Amino acid sequence: MQPVLTSKTFGFTPKGDEIHLFTLSIPDQIEVSVMNYGATWTHLLVPDRNGKMEDVVLGFDTLEGYLQKDYQDHYCYIGSTVGRVAGRITDNRFHLDGKIYELPSNLNDIHLHGGMEGWDKKVWKSEPFETHNSVGVTFYYQSQDGEENYPGTIDVWVTYTLDETGRMEISYKASSDEKTILNPTNHTYFNLSGDFSKTIEGHGFFVDAEKYLPMNQNSLPTGEIANVGGTPFDFRNLKPISEPIHREHPQIEIAGGIDHCFVLNQPEDCAVLYDPESGRKLTLSTTELGLQVYTGNYLGNDFKGKNGLTYGKRTAICLETQHFPDSCNHPEFPSILLMPEEIFQSRTQFVFTAE
Ligand code: BGC
Q1: Sheet of strand 53-55: strand arrangement
Q2: How far is the CA of 158 from the centre of ligand 1 (A)?
Q3: What is the DSSP letter of 269?
Q4: Neighbouring-strand partners of residue 205
């Protein structure tokens, strides 16, 4: 069925910028809302096996929720677009053409997910659109040369599209006027039960990955690309998330759960998240080669989310499609360099079913 696009004012930033909330929907099948503050995915309603529509992504009911200091200070990135570079960066620096770029630390002395004021905290321009079989919104932002100390001015477009089959896509396009690095992602937290007082430990998870990236004590890749076989990171068959995260394993202890990048075998249907209680299932496809899986280990803060609920540890899981974290300090990893004549492109698709 042809999806419908509606929009409304979600609120105003303290500087007076109007924030729009766009809703892309197909009745009784899917309702996706996104806003131009942080090019953020704010709501996702999908039916359970009895047709009950519930919101299955963390967020806030109002713009004020996203702007509250207590939330922003925790750098949780709920639903946001993350950029310029997703993840942590070793020693908060990288080398490019003989020059060292020192990056500001924003969380526990680490430069994480773009820094002090990453793309998640920017006001983007919005362009809603409609085609013969889809609706969507393109958010545009110009990241100036020197923003968070990164070189080059980057023009970036993030597009959310819902097609007639109910498939949701996030696509990225970017270009730079100078050689730089880029590795954006989306940081939506899913809990397919629709009940944010529950954890996602009972969800089943599958990822088509033979290999993953072990982390050091600072949650940075050691550089090794290890086999998942015999480790808690073997999700080659759907299994409950609770099983590996309660296993005693040094890699699980580092992050108090999973906060690791999987090396995807191939793009199509490469990860599945399934909630056996509601029957809701998310199947993911991506053009990216890595999937950072984060089991909400550092949630458990005081700020109040949707319906006044606080989000406890492991309330939700992030499935962040991207190149490998800290690639700028690992020449052995696929490059995240963006050259001036290049167009960066990346696409991730989300299909929701119930069984
Ligand atoms: C990262 C975590 C980080 C969290 C912040 C995740 O994507 O992998 O290390 O603490 O985001 O919300």
Answers
A1: 4-12, 18-26, 30-35, 40-47, 53-55
A2: 21
A3: T
A4: 239, 273
Spatial contact of 275 and 319, defined as CB atoms under 8 Å apart:
no
The pTM of this model reads 0.98
Asked if pLDDT for residue 16 goes beyond 90, the answer is yes
Strand partners, 96: 99
Q: Read off the pLDDT band of 167 (50, 70, 90).
A: very high
Please say if the pLDDT value at position 341 is more than 90: no
Would the CB of 124 count as within 6 Å of ligand 1? no
Domains in the chain: how many in total?
Answer: 1
Contact 211, 333 (CB under 8 A): no
Q: In ligand 1, which atom is closest to the CA atom of 298?
A: 10
Domain that holds residue 137: 4-354
135 near 169, Cβ under 8 Å? Answer: no
Q: What is the CATH number of the domain that holds 275?
A: 2.70.98.10
Q: Residue 4 has which token pair?
A: 């419908």
Residue 18, Cβ density class (10 Å: 0-12 exposed, 13-18 middle, ≥19 buried): middle
Tell me, what's the pLDDT at 201? 97
Q: Is residue 157 within 8 Å of residue 174, measured between CB atoms? A: yes
Q: Which amino acid is at 52?
A: K
Assess contact for 338 and 84: CB atoms under 8 A. Answer: no
Task: Give the residue numbers annotated as catalytic, written as ranges.
Answer: 187, 320
The mean pLDDT value of the chain amounts to: 97
Residue 169, phi-psi category: left (phi > 0), alpha (psi -120 to 50), beta (remainder): beta
Residue nearest atom 10 of ligand 1, based on CA coordinates: 298
Ligand 1 contact via 77 beta carbon (within 6 Å): yes
One-letter amino acid identity for 341? E
pLDDT in tens, 37-53: 999 999 999 999 999 99
* Cβ 292 under 6 angstroms from ligand 1: yes
Which residue shows structure tokens 């920017």? 122
pLDDT at 96 over 90: yes
- Residue keyed to tokens 């096996």: 49
Residue identifier of the C-alpha nearest atom 4 of ligand 1: 76
* Burial classification of residue 79, based on how many CB atoms lie within 10 Å of its CB (0-12 exposed, 13-18 middle, 19 or more buried): buried
Gyration radius from the chain CA atoms:
19
Tell me the CA–centroid distance for residue 10 and ligand 1, in Å: 26
